[in-house]
């Protein structure tokens, strides 16, 4: 999983990051409410761990803003030192999917995150992605354009899924590299070679091009019509 941890206590954040990393998960960090909200809105995460009491903007407010208008349905686990029924109810009503009271066991936090991610993956996320005449079935792992099956390697399938899910925005090189290799990308510009192969697969035989390189920023897969 790619996890965003919003926690202002540096020792706890470091320990959680090390623990999740040791179990194969990548972690991004924020130490206050405003930066946590900004990062959560600008990138795609598999889960968010959000402290209830944060400087600048409290966790419940961050959660409400993320959920506003039906957006950002990423699984969210809220942490708190306030062990009262009213506090837990407020966090859940703000849009948190689960609640964990400090102090807690690291293994329990991991188990709860994995359960939230399983439920989101199996029940809530879209399983047939489409952009223009390009379709990608996440259950069969078959991609088609204009009805023609496209052959993709596992790495290209990962890139295609992320770009199709985020068709409304430019996805940075850092996000794409993290999806493929976690926090340790290979030396050299290997991503460029993968993106070239993906462009050949999904665009080359067709007149309308969907995959764009946004120089200095990243990549976007979108149907921009004649623009």
General description of the model:
Strands 2-1-3-4-5 form a five-stranded parallel β-sheet, sandwiched between helices. Strands 6-7-8-9 form a four-stranded antiparallel β-sheet, with helices on one face. A three-stranded antiparallel β-sheet has the order 10-12-11. It folds into two domains: 123 residues, 3-Layer(aba) Sandwich (Rossmann fold), CATH 3.40.50; 94 residues, Arc Repressor Mutant, subunit A, CATH 1.10.10. It contains eight helices and twelve strands. It is α/β, with parallel strands linked by helices and 227 residues long.
| CATH topology group of the largest domain | Rossmann fold
CATH class type of the largest domain: Alpha Beta
Structural class comes to alpha/beta
* CATH level-two architecture of the largest domain: 3-Layer(aba) Sandwich
CATH superfamily of the largest domain: Response regulator
Low-confidence stretches: none
Order of helices and strands: EHEHEHEHEHEEEEHEHHEE
Percent range of helical residues: 40-55%
Work out the helix count. Answer: 8
Count all strands and give the number: 12
Question: What's this model, at a glance?
Answer:
The strands form three sheets. Strands 2-1-3-4-5 form a five-stranded parallel β-sheet, sandwiched between helices. Strands 6-7-8-9 form a four-stranded antiparallel β-sheet, covered by helices on one side. A three-stranded antiparallel β-sheet has the order 10-12-11. The protein has helices spanning 10-22, 33-42, 59-67, 85-94, 106-124, 154-165, 173-181, 190-202; strands at residues 2-6, 26-30, 47-51, 76-80, 98-101, 128-131, 134-137, 142-145, 148-150, 171-172, 211-214, 218-221.
